[in-house]
């Protein structure tokens, strides 16, 4: 049973103005119902690091997109995955766990970055570039649709993009879809020719270097953690450029007390709750897609087991190949069991 007062004590660290006792009473009722339904449905609830604080209260696991999907492959006993994140992430969970029912509580929870790369446009661009660069390799960031992943040689994450491109035998690489991450990789790999797709995440693109500088001026000892989807002029100011899970690890393990997590605001909420002794300043922006997942639609999705994510067979097989290649190139020991079983 969720205690509204205990809930408020915790959530108030993320937003003192919003989590009133009345709001927390209502949330506690819904959280109780969600917890009961999860067990009735044999469901596991996975929450991305940018979700609303109350979602973490009922999540079985939280993490970044790939970490969660790997977790999806490991929770063998669960029959249903409620994926609290955005559409492309739920698709990865389906690719990694094809036998489970994967539910995304709100189908409108998309991603502006993934939407910049339409599969047909990517197919045409690959054909055009292969005429010019016969050795072209294609790497796609996890923030792409499964249909785009199926067209790529290898997938990558923000944590291993440079490692994946280094391990690819091709000198020329089309990197889809984040132009900021392509620029970051190109700077680190002068021996490769990296052709960027012109996509960006509207949340990270809006973060200005002046905002970060003004917080640093006021708190010169704090550590600045920046997501690689940010612009180059923001990444330059970072003590470390990390994935969201990398930021959580860094903040937990560092002896520093003050941090600025330059990414979507949900991560600062999560860190404020999980590391109460430390201080997290904000130079963040809100992703309205991530906030489309609410306790109400999670509850409804558990009641109805809808909306379900399904993939055409060829897309499922192609996306699986591209995700598996990423592990083969970087960390074969981490290949999820459900993917490992398909290795020829
Ligand atoms: S923060 Fe950006 S990349 Fe992440 S889901 Fe939102 S729009 Fe997509």
Could you list some keywords that capture this structure?
3 domains, four-stranded parallel sheet, alpha/beta, 12 strands, Rossmann fold, 18 helices, binds iron/sulfur cluster, about 350 residues, single chain
What does this structure look like?
By secondary structure, the protein is of the alpha/beta class. The chain folds into three domains: 121 residues, Rossmann fold (3-Layer(aba) Sandwich); 118 residues, 3-Layer(aba) Sandwich (Rossmann fold); 76 residues, Rossmann fold. The protein is built from 18 helices and twelve strands. The strands form three sheets. It has a four-stranded parallel β-sheet with strand order 2-1-3-4, sandwiched between helices. A four-stranded parallel β-sheet has the order 6-5-7-8, with helices on both faces. The protein has a four-stranded parallel β-sheet with strand order 10-9-11-12, sandwiched between helices. The longest helix is centred in the N-terminal third of the chain and has 21 residues. The chain binds iron/sulfur cluster. The site of iron/sulfur cluster has 12 residues, from helix 6 and helix 11. Iron/sulfur cluster binds next to helix 6 and helix 11.
